[in-house]
Here is the input.
Amino acid sequence: MSINVVRAQGSWWVERAGRALRIPTDAVTTAELLADIKTVRAAAESAEGETVDVATLEVESPVTTPCRVVAQMVNYRSHAQESGFDPAKVAPTFFRKASGSVVGPTSQIVKPAHVRLLDYEVELGLVIGAPVPVGTVVTDQNIHEYVAGLVITNDVSARDVQLTKGQFYESKSYPTFTPVGPHLTLLEPDDFRRLVDLRLQLSVDGVLRQDRTAADMIHLPAPSLTALARFQALEPGDVVLTGTPGGTALQAPPHVVELVAHFLPTQVKWKVFFDKQAQNPKYLRAGNRVTATIRTQDGAIDLGRQSCTVVDA
Here is the structure.
């Protein structure tokens, strides 16, 4: 059975049915907590100890920083199709995010003054529990040896920065651009077979924007981690974001418009594109509340509910 852990007020807690029991550990970082997993499991199995209402806690990101934050691009069929890619031709591709972008599950998302097109991407995050050296081969049979648990993440993106500069690091690394949590959901080996049953949902002001199960992934976590480990080592406490489903604000332009834009000067092309995108009401604006959940239909694996409000810098 999975265990839900939250971090709040300088302590780690086991969460059960809205109640939280403090874990008696000296761990400060996520890596230290995972190294003390016996204490975590003992707390989860304990029927003793005073509990508190989780709603009274100021819950923080269960992934502590600094750490590596690695993200996978275009890894859901629905997102690939709406972005103009053929899912059959998409290889596992990764980029880094600054860990300074990590915030808690109820933190504000701060929209920089120069950003016009602020987008959302709910993603399943894999929290690494053991060293993954370069050259590691991760399979469905051994993934539990490397991945300790799961978190909800939101890969917030400044699309106008991303597209004009042709890179991801800056556009996705501004402070507050990676809300994480609330739960660090620690898995048992048998739980990993249910990863494809997880349903990712994201709403803006109560309107559902993204809704797919992880079965929509092009590359599942095990082969994706193998591809990443060809060049990137990982350590306990690192987090890997595994891509987002369709439904983001950014959409690929129609084919005819794309052909016409090919003949325009670069500066004119981008102005026309961004002026058109600026009329899209789906991009995030100050006052929007972004809510995300990831869970199986039966609730056996439930990563909690993330809810963040967008504010102007």
